[in-house]
Amino acid sequence: MSASAFSLSSYFTKRKESPFILKEEEHKQQDTATLFQNPTHPKVTMYNASPLVANASNRLVERNSFVLLKPLKHVFLAMTTLFFLSISCPFLPFSTANAAAPVTPIKNFKPPDSKAIALKKIADERNKEKLQEEMAHQIKCDDIEREQGLKARKAYEKAYLDEKIQKAKFRSLERQKLLYGLVDQGICPYVDVEGERQLYLFDYDIDLNKVASSAQQKEMMKLRRDKKWATRREKEHFIIKCIVEDLKLRGEDPLKYFEANKAKTRDILNLKDKQLDVLFNRYTYLMETQGSLSGIKADVPFDMEAAATHL
Length: 311
Hints:
13 helices; mainly alpha; disordered N terminus; about 300 residues; flat
């Protein structure tokens, strides 16, 4: 390196490190900061009039704007992309989809059995009552044995058991009366909707008309809204009544017949309206002309009243 080059570089280095130069640069920076931090400074007019300061101010504003707008640029691009993906665009190589949670189809869905739920509730309550009754009975037996002896306890237990047997027998007779009473009205207790309702009411103390979505509740609503449905039920009961009268004249037990022929009875109740009208007219004609469907009369007709009072 030549001596002239070395002297120039050392000159500029010394000039930069000179305290006078550093102090001058420091004053310039302080003046510029004062200008932007305090617009009411006395030198503001002078700085504003200077084109160099104006250019420096513009560059600083542009730089700050770029720093602020840089993250917004990415947000704008993301929003634009989502917008184009959310609409149908013919130039896109794929089909659009709506954002939604996946819907899984329920296979073999079965509605809840309201009748079974009601029966389970009644069964649980009765089991609870039965358990409480048995506990009370055992406590009383223990008290009798402690106060009166073992012989008195056995006598009390025998009387308690006999009373339960009599109650069960009486209830069975009442149920049998109900069954024959329904048959005598032309209501099959095993297939007819009304027959099932009355049996459930007797056995479980549940009125199926009040059980939601049960066949009995739907039947009740139909009878209230549609007079034709009520007329159809009257015709069905008349047909069943004709069968009952014919069986009685032939000496047969109508209750046993309907218990053994549930499918035939169900077929009658499921006939279409025109078919039901044809059968109704035919049975009406036979009953008016010969007094029964078959015309057969046994020497001793079946006595339903006697059957209802004997197990």
